[in-house]
Amino acid sequence: MKAIEVMSAMKLNTWNKFCWLLMAMVMTTFTIHTQATEPTSPQLGKAACEVLATKNFLDIPDASTRINSAVIVPASGDVPEYCKVVAYVAPQVGVLLALPTHTWNGRLLMQGCGGTCGVASTIACEDAMARDYAVVHTDMGHQASPIVGSSWAEHNLQGVIDFGYRGTHVALVAAKVIQAAFYGTPAKYTYYRGCSTGGRQGMVEAQRFPEDFNGIIAIAPPLHEVGDTTFHLVWSARAATDRSGRKIIDAEDVKRVHAAVMAACDGNDGVVDGVIQDPGSCKWKVTELACKDGASLAKDGKACLIPEKVEAFRKIYAGAYNAAGLKLFAGGMPLGSELGWFPYFVAPGGEPAKILSPTWLVSEFLRYLAFYDSPTKNFGVFDFDYEHDSPRVNLMEPFYNAQNPDLRPYKARGGKLILMHGYADPLIPPALTIDYYETATRTMGGPGKTLDFFRLFMVPGMEHCIGGNAADAMDTLTVLENWVEKGIAPDQVLSYRVTKEPQTMLNNMRFPIKSPQWDWARPIYPYPDVAVWGGKGDWKDPATWVRKSGKMSDGY
User: Are 366 and 375 in contact (CB under 8 A)?
Assistant: First the structure.
């Protein structure tokens, strides 16, 4: 807990951009909050909190639970006093609840994790706690750093199962029972939100446990967990750097390519603002910067790209494929995402790319989570064999996978699902999310039978969970409440470019935000539709943007 709290206090910098390695991200849409349920006034104090530790929760079906402690945490700022419950579901799933003692809005929110999880904390839930939510978080079945330390999975099949799918479900089952025991009544609505690993948790819940949540917000999910590591992160880092450590493309190459992409496509939406609204509309090719006729410089006198560099960029844009040319993954980076490649695929200085580090998440995942029989302790990024190892990872992927497009059970129970992804996300390719949504739409019988319970919002310019040259502040929690409780489907989500970045990657901002806190905003429409400037008025005003109909792709 303390380690995470220290991390959350860090200023926004390269290191703490790893929001998928820290904690599930709070992504939110601007709508003035209104209570959809009448708040209750339980007036439960220290005695009622402490008595929870004496109660027997061992007989919860499939989630035998023991409470380790239950203590009162005083109010702080806009976060009210709450009963902090620390528990675990046998054999090892940690559960943390925060139950407000004076005013409860009748809702229970589960916050997702990040990276490989390993820590339970309420930090990312504080905005919901300020709105009188009861909240719950889980460590997903182990205690470790979410950034490194995946050795917990070695010879630990139970731990892998808990991380893959069981931990989130049983933690929620236990939380519902404990919460009901505390207040004497169950929650009227149960919600989930999370980004990165937290996004995957939400999608697993919708697919495997459709009874758990009334509404789910899933952002930037690694739907194909092993594939994202091996067919995207490893593939991209190896495209940019050879096995000897020599950089095939460097920071200047990336900046030059990004400038060319933006010059060609930034204005496609009617405004030159540093954001490509729809990367699919950009038809620029990296070959346009290729050296011609043996020249070492382009016509403008600047360095052109030699064939080796052109091929490296092409691989990163295309995504992984095998020797026969068969595409292995619905991945690849979209045009306009290039600056987000720092420091993951290409380090801006002389240091190696982050993904190549033998102690960072990717190498740890390869050693302990990607294979059924763990490889040697020094197995690294360049040891993965795309011809022989690609089929092997299919033994482990079923534990983590969240790509089942048949969401009929979740829809039948009245569930609502908001899926989001940043178009410039370097860690989890947005194409994976788009491909899933399109597949699910076809499976469910078309857009008409999908949009009434499931909508995808692609955020232009946003990197992983947050960041990039993007309007990334959104009050999605209110949007989900309105959809579930009032039947108001989100035809748009307003996204705000804040004038001051949050101090941490948890981005648990308070809404509504006022105009001095943001410098421009615009609507995001359900995929495949996009926002374009209407041509009149100040483009920074979201009212000047209009909806343009899009169409789905033919898949990968």
Answer: yes
Backbone angles phi, psi at 169, to 5 degrees: -65, -50
What is the pTM assigned to this prediction? Answer: 0.92
User: Tokens for 213?
Assistant: 């949540």
The residue ranges of every structural domain in the chain are 2-223+405-526, 227-398
Q: Within a 10 A sphere around the Cβ of 382, how many other Cβ atoms?
A: 15
Largest Cα span, the chain: 82
Q: How far apart are CA 233 and CA 219, in angstroms?
A: 18
Closest to 520 (Cα-Cα) out of 468, 466, 471, 462: 471
Q: Angle formed by the axes of helices 167-183 and 197-208, to 10°? A: 80
Nearest to 156 by CA among 138, 134, 141, 168: 141
* 508-541 pLDDT per residue, tens: 788 998 778 899 999 999 999 999 999 999 999 9
Q: Are 89 and 109 in contact (CB under 8 A)?
A: no
- Spatial CA neighbour of 402 closest among 364, 458, 440: 440
| 289 burial level (CB within 10 Å; 0-12, 13-18, 19+) | buried
Q: What top-level class would CATH report for the domain 2-223+405-526?
A: alpha beta
pLDDT at 24: 38
The one-letter code for the residue type at 178 is I
- Residue of 146, 135, 136 whose CA lies nearest to 168: 136
Count of alpha carbons within 13 Å of 29, Cβ hemisphere only?
Answer: 27
Check if the beta carbon of residue 72 is closer than 8 Å to that of residue 53. Answer: no
**Confidence (pLDDT) at 220:** 98
The predicted-structure confidence for 155-175, as pLDDT tens digits, reads as follows 999 999 999 999 999 999 999
Tokens, residue 464: 């992983």
Question: Is the CB of residue 305 less than 8 Å from the CB of residue 253?
Answer: yes
Low-confidence ranges of the chain (pLDDT < 50): 1-36, 503-505
